[in-house]
Amino acid sequence: MPAPLSPITDVEQLEDSLSRPTLGLVERLAGVSGDILFLGAGGKMGPTMARMARRAADLAGSGRKIIAASRYSEKGLAERLQSWGVETIGCDLLDEDAIAKLPDAPNVVYLAGLKFGTSGSEPKTWAMNTHLPAVVCRRFRGSRIVALSTGNVYGLTAADTAGSREDDPLDPAGEYAMSCLGRERMFQWFSESLGIPTAIVRLNYATELRYGVLVDIARKVFHGDPVDISMSRFNTIWQRDANAMILQLLGETRSPAEIFNVTGPTHLRTKEVAEEFGRQLNREVNLVGEETDTALLSDSSRIYAITGEPEVEAAQMIGWIARWLENDGALLDKPTHFEARDGKF
Q: Which of 163, 251, 268, 274 has its Cα between 20 and 30 A from that of 138?
């Protein structure tokens, strides 16, 4: 199922595109039995990932339930998920009694986490990112678990290399990245001690038209704001590709836990991306800072060997985003702060 190359013109079309399952996902998910429970499904990726799982199950002729648990602070989100055939449960994941009442599910996709606003809210950051995984592992000790983490646990690497690989030493900077390493350690400990089949996903910058590192750069160019190029390079991946890869890992869970990087194959140069947006948006580009020889970069060749490379390339994303901004498309106003080199968010 190749990705569409025509422009995406509205949110309904965007969410349909982001949740369209790949052929590989349909085939691989058919080999994984049982319902799928998404924890923390109300964030940026959860809704389209849960919808993709529903669509893949339907294409495979599976009657499995797709269940999404979240606080649902966004008005209308639970109803939208229900319209897509996803069951919803309102749940504060920091309430252990509420977690205890969640239904059993053979498959759990853990999307919960706290990043932005962590400076000044360090105790809540650690509770969400490190304590909660232990609670979830005890509750769902009989399930497979795919748990999202972040490439921030690696720290910065040389910009002229292929990027950090799963077996590289970790060097998290700042309390967010350290708490995310704590999250991984909890999933690793309980995977080994309780025999929970687990896959940990170190994701770098999923992008769609309403948010993501490319959107951050495009908006600054569009409005004439300075673009900091001190984080000289970055990876990003179209959210549909990321959703499909992450869901396929339900078939790759193991005890002890397996780890997979998920991001795009190309190291994009911040300066060049800003200049390309300048050309497409007909804007002057205001570059600030000095390019450095280190960046947050990951090598995802391990997961590509299982799922294949992403279908949507960076040039396609850049073109879509430029047209989206020109047409006053909706935005989430959730900046990635990808330029932060000190780990403070």
A: 251
